[in-house]
Amino acid sequence: MKMTDQELLAALADPAEDPARLERISTEIKDRFGLLSHRLGKAVAVFGSARTGPPDPRYAVARTLGARFAEAGFAVITGGGPGLMEAANRGAMEAGGTSVGLGIELPREQSLNPYVDVSMTFRYFFARKLMFIRYASAFVVLPGGFGTLDELFEALTLVQTGKIHEFPVVLIETAHWAGLTDWIRDRLQGQGFITAEDIRRLRCTDDIDEAVELIQQCHLRQLAQ
């Protein structure tokens, strides 16, 4: 059976069904806005691999990260899946914070991890991504695959184009991201596709306390605006 995104994006999709699709999209966004707007205060979105389990040291890093953000008063939002998403949710829940999982329907069923206390599942990727941007005041990005990179570059594009302001994007694990950040600087900035200011919007650190402090300070500036 096709997923809803597949039906929407299929080249041969029947245009006559578009009004019904638009109604489903509108309902999904409206319902999720209503649920989250009453449950969250300040929040940070944490992204990372679904394939990195507890034996990997990065799992412990993500768990600690979730706990530190919870202790600083932030809700922690993830994609609700396993791996590093689970670890961040777990840390937030164990620290007594609000742990949010925004799941997505996939051809291979992926259930929400057991460490979320606010959860919802989306049919449409773009509706889900909208919720991350709408309710998080920062993105923290751990190592991951295509999905993680997609979320990273969408956030950077929105900041670069002024669609969102004072929105820090923090990469955790400098050794992992070094090749990408060097390429961005050498190729993209070097050929004039982006500016030095665009690069300064992207922060990279191995220090969890630094990441939390950076986002806390940015949140205070947001409140002062």
UniProtKB/TrEMBL annotation:
Catalytic activity field: N(6)-(dimethylallyl)adenosine 5'-phosphate + H2O = N(6)-dimethylallyladenine + D-ribose 5-phosphate; 9-ribosyl-trans-zeatin 5'-phosphate + H2O = trans-zeatin + D-ribose 5-phosphate
Residue ranges that the Swiss-Prot or TrEMBL entry lists as coiled coil: none
E.C. designation(s): 3.2.2.n1
Keywords: Cytokinin biosynthesis, Hydrolase
InterPro entries: LOG (IPR005269), LOG_fam (IPR031100), LOG_family_nucleotidases (IPR052341)
Family of this protein: Belongs to the LOG family.
PANTHER family cross-referenced by the UniProt entry: CYTOKININ RIBOSIDE 5'-MONOPHOSPHATE PHOSPHORIBOHYDROLASE
NCBIfam families named in the record: Rossman fold protein, TIGR00730 family (TIGR00730)
Protein name: Cytokinin riboside 5'-monophosphate phosphoribohydrolase
Lineage of the organism: Bacteria, Bacillati, Actinomycetota, Actinomycetes, Micrococcales
